[in-house]
Amino acid sequence: MRPRWANVTWFETLPSNEFLSADEQHALQAEALKGLVGFCAAEVPYYRDLFHRLGSEPDDIQEPEDLCRLPILTKSDVQERAEDLQPQMLVEAGLIPTLSSGTTGRPTRVLHTVTSRSLYVLLKQREQRWFRFDPSTTFAAIRLPSQLPHQPDGEPLGEGVTCRLPAWRYAGRCFETGPYVAYAVTNPVEKQIEWLERERPAYLMTYPESLEHLALAYQGTRPPESLRGLLAISEQLTPQMRRRVERTFGVPLHQNYGLNEVGLVASRCPEGARYHVHTEQCLVEIVDEGAEPCAPGQTGRVLVTNLTNRAMPLLRYDTGDLAEVVDGPCPCGRTLPSFGAVVGRYSRIAFLPEGTLTYVAAVRDALESMPLRLSRPLRRFQVHQFRDGSFELRLVGAAPLAAEFAQRIRQAWEAATAPNHLELRIREVEELPVSPGEKFQDFTSDFFPALDGQTGTGE
Question: What is the dihedral of CA 321, 327, 328, 329, to 10 degrees?
Fold first, then answer.
């Protein structure tokens, strides 16, 4: 530990919190929630007006189960009522603005206190402890230039340029670590592979689609033996993507769930394959269409209440994401509240015609099971759904793909879409488009509404 952090007790408190009894967990959450709600009702105009309109008092919210008394806070609420969501008086100085990635040009802007943002550093160390990351090694990141440290002249990381830091970001502030290296995802996949071979990192953090592109490019060759673990961030990771990536790289693929509007919400447990909520940071609810709590095994909308940010408190914030409810103890022994797989964004899935995700999964399964002799040239793919109900599979290859490749895809498609027999066009292209937020999506649809700003899993 670095000397300036020697007196910080959080690194003992966090492990202790992970194994409290259910009653102790509940009591801590209730205490934090009561303090936050009291502050909101007294100091924040939006919530003061809300309690008055509801004819209720802050004391009506005594524990997490009472949050259902309050309406859901939407992204539109935050965008349109931003000033009213800020307290009239806040002693702490140095507020930090954060933005969601804003795929429509209308990102969600939230102010954070230095205290709430500092917790991110502590929770990253907890997460890397859960993942068994060895801090003495090299940590690598492949991300959008806007999300990486800038060059000394203030410009974003250019193509072919490596960012080098003497310590890991975040955890390296508190502990002695090995170096951190970063590379722009805008570099061609072949250049990314050359970079990985040259840098030989132990851990790689990037987007799920980027990991899949690398896995496709590594077909028939071995990734660097130095790699011990992968971390997928910011986007949805499908089961097919996970299987392909872990099979190709031969190392664990880790995930977390975070929001720029909140911070690090939860991290995926390597033993239990569920997301443990960082209760020091927030509370999570998963609700159905009627805003009622979902039962174990059901999938519902993810609501998050930030317990630490008094610069712009968010109570029951609708993330737009969907996740599964899980029950019972986790094999790891931790007692933190948990939820299952994050299965997509409600704002996208809700508008798709029935059967769409089944059809897309059939294409992904066919690509996953494609013999190496046929899939070796494949580098990227994208499935697009048109308004007329037809689909198009767009393929980018290092060389032309064999006719048998398309035949196998069509066989899987016909089996999945029978008896509707929807049209699937297969087309080889030189490149694939990215979204306005500069993120690649392997499934796009004309039925998707304009997005308010992708949040999803954070760094």
Answer: 10
H helical segments located in 331-442:
346-349, 356-368, 372-375, 403-417
For residue 157, the one-letter residue type is: L
Place of tokens 């994050």: 342
Domains and CATH numbers, the chain: 3-90+277-347 (3.40.50.12780), 132-251 (3.40.50), 356-445 (3.30.300)
Please report how the helices 10-17 and 114-130 are oriented relative to each other, as an axis angle in degrees rounded to 10. Answer: 60
The DSSP annotation for 115-181 comes to HHHHHHHHHHHHHHHHTT--TTS-EEEEE-GGGSPPPTTSPPPPTT--EEESS-TTHHHHS----EE
Count other Cβ atoms within 10 Å, centred on residue 408.
Answer: 17
Per residue in 108-162, pLDDT (tens digit) is 889 999 888 889 999 999 999 999 999 999 999 999 998 899 988 889 999 999 9
The answer to whether residues 227 and 204 touch, using CB atoms and an 8 Å cutoff, is yes
Distance CA 331, CA 55 (A): 44
